Each structure stands twice: as C-alpha cells, then as structure tokens.
C-alpha cells in the first residue's frame, strides 16, 4: 500500500481532548490502512517512577477530588496498576462512521476493504471523499508522549 498521509505530534501529561486529521482523497481506494501508534514506554509507570513525590501527589489528588484517604501502598498500587495513557482512534468518511478502536494498544491498525474491516470497523466497498481520523485522548500520564498517524491505501 502507498502512504497517502502522515502526521505526528506530542501530547503532555494531563492532556484530554480530541485531535482530528482531515484527508481529502485524490482518487477512490479499494483498501485503506490507518495506522496509529504512541510511545509504548509512555503508557504506564515503571516501579522506579513510583517515587515518593508521585505517591504523595496521588494521595493528595485522591483526597481533594474524591474525599478519600489512601495509604502509601494503595497509592503505589494505583500508580503502577491503574494509571495509564489512554488514546483511541475514530475514522469517518464524508462524516459517516467507519470505525473506532478502543483497545488499550500503543500500536494499532484500522484496515478497510470491501470484504473485511478490523475489529470495531465497518467494511467499505469504495473508499472515497473526505476521511477524518480523530485521535481521542482520554488521559496522558507522561510529558512528551509522541504519536504518529499514517493513512495508506491502494
């Protein structure tokens, strides 16, 4: 498949929002692959990153937002097992739903053709018009989280 479009960016800790990329296809396609990835090492915290400062910050946020106290061990567990960067992808063609991938993957493909589509996607006999890919960012836990998006087709 030929690469038609490429975009890259960086999001930082605490970012929540949507970033939409719009591609006007020059010709109809019979097959399309939307490939999205972000830094795998930015998805979760390592044991070394469960610092005393981060533990105290987590305890304070829990107290402030939810009115609940947690021990250092509970805060460490939350940091290592519950906190994660969560980014999903949504695709439309001429404002019609094509697919959405919610899996907790740092590298994913949304593949479309007339007979097949990736899980969470709808097969497309003809792929033509305006493709919009929305990067749905629900949570980013680390600064400088790099991502890339490519759209390829034939």
Notable characteristics:
four-stranded antiparallel β-sheet, 154 residues, single chain, 43% strand, 8 strands, 2 domains, Jelly Rolls, alpha+beta, elongated
Describe the structure.
With 154 residues, this protein is of the alpha+beta class. It is 17% helix and 43% strand. It is elongated, with a radius of gyration of 19 Å. The protein folds into two domains: 112 residues, Jelly Rolls (Sandwich), CATH 2.60.120; 36 residues, no CATH class. Strands 1-8-3-6 form a four-stranded antiparallel β-sheet, with no helix packed on it. A four-stranded antiparallel β-sheet has the order 2-7-4-5, with no helix packed on it.
């Amino acid at each position: 498949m030929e690469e038609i479009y490429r975009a890259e960016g960086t999001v930082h800790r605490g970012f929540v929002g949507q970033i939409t990329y719009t591609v006007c296809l020059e010709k109809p396609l019979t097959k399309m692959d939307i490939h999205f990835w972000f830094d795998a090492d930015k998805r979760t915290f390592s044991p070394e990153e469960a610092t005393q400062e981060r533990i105290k910050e987590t305890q304070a946020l829990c107290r402030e937002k939810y009115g609940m106290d947690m021990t250092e061990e509970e805060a460490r567990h939350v940091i290592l097992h519950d906190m994660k960067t969560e980014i999903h992808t949504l695709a439309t063609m001429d404002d019609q739903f094509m697919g959405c991938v919610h899996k907790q993957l740092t590298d994913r493909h949304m593949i479309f053709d007339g007979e097949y589509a990736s899980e969470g996607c709808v097969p497309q006999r003809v792929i033509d018009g305006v493709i919009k890919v929305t990067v749905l960012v629900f949570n980013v836990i680390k600064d400088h989280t790099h991502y890339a998006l490519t759209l390829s087709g034939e």
